[in-house]
Structures are given as C-alpha cells and as structure tokens.
Amino acid sequence: MSKRVQRFAMEFIALIASIVIFWIPLYFVIITAMKSPREASLMDLALPQVNLLWENIKEVFVYRDYMLVRAFYNSTVLTLASIALLVIVSAMAAFVMQRRTDRFTPWLSLLVLMGLIIPPAIVPTIWVLDGLQLFKTLPGLILVEVALGFPFCAMLYRGFVASIPKEIDEAAIMDGYSGFKLFFKIIMPLLQPVTATVIVVQAVTIFNDFTNPLYFLPGVKNVTVQLTLYNFTSQFVSQYNLLFSNILLITIPPLILFIFFNKRIVAGMTAGAVKG
C-alpha cells in the first residue's frame, strides 16, 4: 500500500470519527430543539414535521422571568474576570519559576505540578470561602476558577518563557527596567501567542463549568448558563424541546470562539512545548 493510499485512509477514518463524535450529537441537539414537546420526547434522529426552533428559543429566554439572560450575564462576568486574573497571575508566576535558580525553585514547581494531580476538595473549599465571607458570591467563585486553572496556565507560560533569552532581561535592566516594569513592559508583550491560547482554552472551560457554580454559587440570582439546564428537567416531567434549545443557545458562544481561534490554540501550545 502506497503512502498516498495510507494517508487517504487515515484522513477518511478521521473524517468518519469526527462525524460520529461531534456532528451527529450536534445534529441531534439542533433537530430536537426544532421539535414540539411530543416529537422531542421520542428522542430520535427524525426531522420535525414543523420547525418550531424560533418559538422554543423565545420560550427559553422568557422562562422564569428571563433567567437565561441573567445567567449569560453572570457567566460572562465570571469568565472575563477569571481570565484576567489567570493571565496576570500565571504569567508572573511562570516568569519567576523560570528565571529563579535557587534551591526553592524545584519545590515551587512541584507544588504547581501537584495542583494538576490532586483533585479539588469541595467541603474544605466551602469552609474557607465561608470563613472569608465569599461563599455564594461571584468573587468567591472567581477565586475558585483561578485556583483551579492556575497550575495548567502556569506550566504553559513557563514553557514559553523558557524560549525568551535572559539577555533581554539583562538589557532591559541596563536600561533602567526592573520588577513589575520589566515584566509588563518587556516580557508580557512577548507572551502574546501563549496568552491567546490561555484565554481561549480557559474561557471555554470556565464558561462551560457546571460543578463549581453548582457547589460554590447556589441560588437563583447567581445562576450560570450551565445551571439553567435544570429548568426543563424534573423527576416526572422533562421538556426536551426546550432543554435542547437551551443547550443549543449556551453551546454557540464557546463553539464560535473555539472555531475562530483554533489555530491560535495549537500555535500557542506547540510553541511553548517546542521552545520550552
């Protein structure tokens, strides 16, 4: 078998796998969101007799006094604030870990690596947030998201910082730059590729987060987009047409973000890995 045939076979298998894994579930979500309650309850792949997508979307938006609008606002604030803190804190920590050469540096790296391995503890985190009077508050959940995303972002930034020659630091110090001025004026602009990767990956992760808002931000006024899925499911009755309309609405923003910035994600991660 020639290399061209092998390559064609691998591409064909990858195409079929992507259709099965991604496009068929997306197709199922879209057509179910178009159906009436009776048709949606069948949970099949048949096309709807009448397209009710727009009516279902309007009903989802007005449900429970426009809860979905409030959820989009909360999720947007949560995502933007968490990303801003993550970028600054992770980049600064990575710069210090990469540039320092004393005996504490390996232990610092080990602690960051442990953050990727050890799972988060729900009850102690709630206890700490309650002691700080941040439980059931948006700032408290922002701190949780930053803490959970910090190890991955710091390691990604550290690999990219390693590609920046130390001579740049020394030249900047000779010109009078030091401390925060050195980092924000010289180093941070050089981290734009990996920063784009961190922003896109973490934005999708935080926006789609379900468990952390459920545990640390309970309450109707604090609802995020993922928690609105509870509106249309119960023990005895489930409105699948509205449920999948809701899923479609909350899937569109991260999907668009991922599609348009997919190349930036790959470029930032591979640059950090190869140069690190």
Automatic annotation (TrEMBL):
Has the keyword tRNA-binding been applied to this entry? Answer: no
Q: Which residues form a coiled coil?
A: none
> ABC transmembrane type-1 domain: from which residue to which, for each copy?
72-261
Q: What CDD domains does the database record attribute to this sequence?
A: TM_PBP2 (cd06261)
Q: Which InterPro entries match?
A: MetI-like, MetI-like_sf
Q: Which UniProt keywords apply?
A: Cell membrane, Membrane, Transmembrane, Transmembrane helix, Transport
Where in or outside the cell it occurs: the entry states: Cell membrane
Q: Which GO terms describe its cellular component?
A: plasma membrane
Q: Which PROSITE patterns match?
A: ABC_TM1
The lineage's top-level taxon is Bacteria
A family per Pfam: BPD_transp_1
Which parts pass through the membrane? 12-34, 71-95, 107-129, 141-161, 182-207, 242-261
> SUPFAM superfamilies annotated for this entry?
MetI-like (SSF161098)
Any GO BP annotation: transmembrane transport
What is the membrane topology noted in the UniProt record heading this document?
A: Multi-pass membrane protein
Q: Which family is this sequence assigned to?
A: Belongs to the binding-protein-dependent transport system permease family.
Q: What is this protein called?
A: Transporter
